[in-house]
Design brief:
Blueprint lengths: L10 E5 L3 H13 L3 E5 L2 H8 L6 E5 L7 H11 L5 E5 L4 H10 L4 E4 L4 H11 L10
Parallel strand pairs: 1-2, 1-3, 3-4, 4-5
Length: 135
């Protein structure tokens, strides 16, 4: 098999202002066979996505500098069709989830996020041409 036939792993951008949560989500996704890029807020996420190909974005809804709703709106405008998964640990999760869907998110998860639910949500959003490595 030549190197040209090897496809890179699907790239997932995880955006969360909590260092521990970013690390946890990264570990869950890497164990499931994804390449993971992280950002601490929406502005940093936009910088990351402009420098590499991202297949799915997972974003917290409540963050400083640029929150998940603002990021979702910016991504939908600049990268139509890019799947976005909203996550949040706020008490009124359903309200945030409705807003995220209205602005373009394709799915949502409430914190704490289980590894199974996270990986399933990401796989459901991946284009068929970009499957994760099976672990």
């Amino acid at each position: 098999m030549s190197d040209a036939s090897v496809q890179p792993l699907p790239a997932i951008l995880v955006v969360d202002d909590d260092d521990g949560m970013r690390h946890l989500l990264r570990r869950m996704l890497e164990r499931a066979g994804f390449a993971v890029v992280t950002a601490a807020h929406g502005r940093e996420a936009l910088e990351r996505i402009r420098t590499r190909t991202i297949d799915v974005v997972i974003t917290d809804m409540v963050m400083p500098e640029m929150d998940g709703i603002e990021l979702t709106r910016a991504l939908v405008a600049e990268y139509p069709g890019l799947p976005i998964i909203a996550i949040s640990g706020v008490h009124d999760w359903s309200n945030y989830f409705r807003m995220a869907l209205r602005f373009g998110a394709k799915a949502g998860l409430q914190k704490p996020v289980s590894p199974v639910a996270l990986v399933q949500a990401v796989r459901e959003q991946l284009p068929a041409s970009r499957p994760a490595r099976q672990s």
